[in-house]
Amino acid sequence: MFKRLLSAFGAGGASVDTVLDSPHALPGQVLTGQVHIEGGGADAVIDEVTLSLLTRVEVEYGSGEHGASGELARVVAARNLRVPSRESVVVPFQLQLPWESPITALEGSPLPGAGVGLRTELVVADAPDEGDLDPVLINPLPSQVAVLRAFGDLGLGLQQAENTGGRLPGMPQGLPFFQELELVPQSGDGFPQVQLTFVTTPQELHVALEANKRGGLFRQDGDHFGRFHAPHGEAEQRDWTPEIGQWLHQVGANGMGAAPGYPGEYGHPGGEPERSGPGVGGVIAGAAAGVVGGMVLGEVVDGVFDGDDVPAVETPDIDAAEFDADDFEEPDFEE
Known about the structure:
- This protein is mainly beta.
- It folds into two domains: 3-139 and 298-304, Immunoglobulin-like (Sandwich), CATH 2.60.40.640; 142-288, no CATH class.
- The chain contains five helices and 17 strands.
- It has helices spanning 142-153, 232-237, 241-253, 285-288, 297-304, and strands at residues 3-5, 15-20, 24-25, 30-38, 44-61, 64-83, 88-96, 105-106, 109-110, 116-124, 127-135, 137-138, 156-165, 177-185, 194-200, 204-211, 224-231.
- The strands form five sheets. It has a five-stranded antiparallel β-sheet with strand order 13-14-15-16-17. A four-stranded antiparallel β-sheet has the order 1-2-4-7, with no helix packed on it.
- Helix 1 (142-153) packs across helix 3 (241-253).
- The longest helix has 13 residues, at 241-253.
- The radius of gyration is 22 Å and the shape is elongated.
- 42% of the residues are buried.
- InterPro entries: Spore_0_M (IPR009776).
């Protein structure tokens, strides 16, 4: 939640406090809460009360990567709102999370490099007043948990997470950016590093994998790709460990240097074996033991959006391999 005084915009010193009913959510769920406005010394009229869900996105153009503020969702909770002097006004809101929302937490532990925040903006006399970011913990869907559990069973741990601007070919992607989860082997079993991306719809889970990444997911200088998909119910019950393990062994057999190209679709295995292993918590063990261990969500969000002046830039519809410097505004935060 945040509190801000609006006297600079003629709102009579009104204060604002945004409260989430719960900071925990799943992709596709509705985030609910209230914006509490306390009237100041004079009556005020607020043109709009807007809430937006933001995350950091890395885009590559020119000489390297540049950070931008990517908007996941936005809702106008109220218009032409009168706030009497010294009185309280409560504005309830509902904000639909996209099914492709990045994962920011596993079993209560924030993911390194991942952060999503809710920003409240009030417009008074055509002058917007942006609040701080309220952190939102987005946990994986049960179908995503099943895939993450398989990587944990296979001995791969999460090192970091990053949102990348662009689109994946052949995927039902709605947002103009996607999350990459970097998984690293925790033992010398010969497995490569893997970049994992989930693309979810209300009906299905799509999984994109890349091993030994050099140039980015599905770019022409990448090494070895894998792609899986299943309805959510089936994906949740499936034991993904043999399927992903087979793909990892194939990558190893090819020396992690297979000719680049778009992967074929993997079939659905027969049967639904029972799951085993340490659980999804094992996938974050490597990160928790490293230099990024011990972070709390507030620190993650502060690192993602450093300061109060980060612009809410809606990322445009672009191709992953073709960036234009004019497509993204470079945000005003420190790296």
